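About this split. The held-out portion is used to measure sequence recovery: a designer receives only the structure tokens and must propose an amino acid at every position. Recovery is the fraction of positions where the proposal matches the reference. Here is one held-out target exactly as it appears in the evaluation file.
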């Protein structure tokens, strides 16, 4: 039980989403799992995913439509003009992220990673083991059923 916004020392809780906590005045992001609580004051608990349902699809680069640092992606089924390969990505509801990199043969190489919420319509992308730092942040600028506009921060 939470007492005055704090979990008593020694309690064990299950985190089902992202926990934003303040310990020694430093923000910390914890991914889903079990953590030990040692006097962490809870500031906010985000839902498992505050991403729009429409974003959980495979998205392919429509670079012809990019505008500055805003990148445009369309569904893989879109009738793209001919190109020497197109990258893209897929955001899965279970936290899996698949990056479709352009392969030497102009096809795609799949690179598997994970994502976690970093704010409203913003996710951090990770590749490698659990201790790896994030590779980049995707900020979802706008979306609908067949087009996605994003900004990347590296």
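Reference sequence for scoring:
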């Amino acid at each position: 039980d939470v007492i005055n916004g704090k979990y008593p020392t020694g309690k064990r809780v299950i985190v089902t989403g992202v926990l934003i906590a303040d310990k020694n005045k430093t923000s910390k992001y914890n991914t889903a799992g079990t953590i030990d609580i040692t006097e962490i004051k809870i500031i906010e608990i985000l839902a498992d995913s505050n991403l729009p349902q429409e974003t959980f699809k495979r998205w392919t680069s429509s670079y012809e439509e990019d505008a500055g640092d805003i990148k445009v992606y369309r569904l893989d089924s879109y009738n793209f003009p001919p190109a020497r390969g197109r990258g893209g990505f897929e955001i899965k509801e279970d936290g899996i992220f698949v990056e479709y990199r352009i392969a030497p043969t102009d096809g795609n190489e799949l690179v598997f990673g994970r994502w976690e919420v970093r704010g409203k319509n913003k996710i951090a992308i990770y590749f490698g083991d659990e201790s790896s730092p994030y590779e980049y942040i995707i900020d979802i600028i706008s979306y609908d059923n067949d087009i996605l506009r994003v900004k990347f921060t590296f």
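Annotator remark: The CA atoms of residues 126 and 134 lie 5 Å apart.
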